[in-house]
Design goal:
about 70 residues; 6 helices; about 70% helix; mainly alpha
Length: about 70
């Protein structure tokens, strides 16, 4: 899934993907092409979203700005 196709998703679909193990945030970070977001995305996978902290931040940013903005680009 390309980064551009992730940005084209509807707002409600983004929220659903964040609610389900933060799939949207992880994919955004892994497809960014930059080292820090990729490392954070891998940490999310292997540490269960850093005990839910990144999940909560992603959920709040998607609700208010309609996009994952923290450590994603």
């Amino acid at each position: 899934m390309a980064k551009s196709s992730l940005k084209g998703l509807d707002w409600i679909v983004k929220i659903i993907l964040v609610l389900v193990y933060d799939v949207y945030g992880i994919l955004r970070r892994l497809t960014s092409g930059k080292p820090v977001p990729i490392i954070v995305g891998l940490l999310q996978i292997f540490t269960v979203n850093l005990a839910g902290i990144i999940w909560l931040v992603d959920l709040i940013t998607v609700i208010f700005s309609k996009e994952v903005t923290v450590l994603a680009d």
